[in-house]
Amino acid sequence: MILLENVSKTFQADGKVVEAVKNVNLSLREGKIHGIIGFSGAGKSTLVRCINLLERPTEGKVILGDVEITALDEKELREERKKIGMIFQQFNLFASRTVFQNIAYPLKNSGLSRNEVENKVNYLLELVELKEKSGAYPSQLSGGQKQRVAIARALANDPKILLSDEATSALDPQTTKSILKLLKQLNEKLGITVIVITHEMQVVKEICDNVVVMENGRVVEQGDVFSIFANPVEKITKDFVDSTSNLTKVHELINENAEIVRLKEGECILKFTYLKRDASEALVSHISRSFELDVNIIFGNIELIGSYPIGGLISVVSGRESSINDAINYLREKNVGVEVILDARVSK
Ligand SMILES: Nc1ncnc2c1ncn2[C@@H]1O[C@H](COP(=O)(O)OP(=O)(O)OP(=O)(O)O)[C@@H](O)[C@H]1O
């Protein structure tokens, strides 16, 4: 377990006090991928840099496994830090060294023989699928390749934790996907704990097991990714979740009085969302048949998190008012969230 107990970090800059991290308590399970999400300035980088003491907390304790690293002296800390690798948005490679030399750099004082270093670097190059670039210089690599080198270098000392600070922010969407896939593979293959800082909920959706939401230096919400996507509580979390789907577009369409959302009398627009992992029956056809409703799905967004569907559908539903109400109750019992977005039903 990675434990942060009452961790705060305050900076003094230009005579001003900045409380970058405020009294954070977190426990992050080993072997999982954790996302830390928040807007710029929320304190994500500072918090994560407190995990390897690149920033020393002003208050609080950081405990990795059974070692309180905030209580170690410099020499002990140097050893403990080897268990933590880190990658950055700007890659931070040595421009004048080859790919091989960059990856070998952290092994300088490891006591390994030249042969052992060579074997290790070749193994790491294979792991990140970059064997053919061993002799290239960073300037000869694409962004995605540079990040693969940085990942290999971060893994040189067999760390137990890999910290990723916006590692995909400078990459195009396709390269981002391939780097995220690599992080997931490394997590599965090596059992390494990965902590990913991001401001994109899509990154969280793609690879994380758990997510921590930060706002103004505080952790405002956390949980497993499915639960956070299904039931976000805080406004900021809802906004992040909404940013990964098109469902909120229905409000824009209503404001624009778009034809697709213009209702006839007796119709309503409902938003159905998955709330639990087991909500995967043929619910739309069931309510349509059992409650004699017409359900016209106008758009939707359903994806898989792990192997469970998450997301929702926007539908125009018509039928008897009482039948619609019965269908809504039925769906809610089946762990489907139902929100009436627009209602043109009239009570008879
Ligand atoms: N070394 C420093 N000195 C002074 N203030 C700092 C320092 N590092 C960070 N801060 C301040 O602490 C706050 C949190 O910064 P931090 O970089 O942790 O946020 P972030 O969520 O990672 O943002 P971003 O997504 O933009 O990287 C900001 O107000 C920032 O200006």
From TrEMBL:
<protein>
    <submittedName>
        <fullName>ATP-binding cassette domain-containing protein</fullName>
    </submittedName>
</protein>
<dbReference type="InterPro" id="IPR050086">
    <property type="entry name" value="MetN_ABC_transporter-like"/>
</dbReference>
<dbReference type="Pfam" id="PF09383">
    <property type="entry name" value="NIL"/>
</dbReference>
<keyword id="KW-0029">Amino-acid transport</keyword>
<keyword id="KW-0547">Nucleotide-binding</keyword>
<keyword id="KW-1003">Cell membrane</keyword>
<dbReference type="GO" id="GO:0005886">
    <property type="term" value="C:plasma membrane"/>
</dbReference>
<dbReference type="GO" id="GO:0006865">
    <property type="term" value="P:amino acid transport"/>
</dbReference>
<dbReference type="InterPro" id="IPR003593">
    <property type="entry name" value="AAA+_ATPase"/>
</dbReference>
<dbReference type="InterPro" id="IPR003439">
    <property type="entry name" value="ABC_transporter-like_ATP-bd"/>
</dbReference>
<dbReference type="InterPro" id="IPR018449">
    <property type="entry name" value="NIL_domain"/>
</dbReference>
<keyword id="KW-0472">Membrane</keyword>
<keyword id="KW-0067">ATP-binding</keyword>
<keyword id="KW-1278">Translocase</keyword>
<dbReference type="GO" id="GO:0016887">
    <property type="term" value="F:ATP hydrolysis activity"/>
</dbReference>
<dbReference type="InterPro" id="IPR017871">
    <property type="entry name" value="ABC_transporter-like_CS"/>
</dbReference>
<comment type="similarity">
    <text>Belongs to the ABC transporter superfamily.</text>
</comment>
<dbReference type="InterPro" id="IPR027417">
    <property type="entry name" value="P-loop_NTPase"/>
</dbReference>
<dbReference type="InterPro" id="IPR045865">
    <property type="entry name" value="ACT-like_dom_sf"/>
</dbReference>
<feature type="domain" description="ABC transporter">
    <location>
        <begin position="2"/>
        <end position="241"/>
    </location>
</feature>
<keyword id="KW-0813">Transport</keyword>
<dbReference type="GO" id="GO:0005524">
    <property type="term" value="F:ATP binding"/>
</dbReference>
<dbReference type="InterPro" id="IPR041701">
    <property type="entry name" value="MetN_ABC"/>
</dbReference>
<dbReference type="Pfam" id="PF00005">
    <property type="entry name" value="ABC_tran"/>
</dbReference>
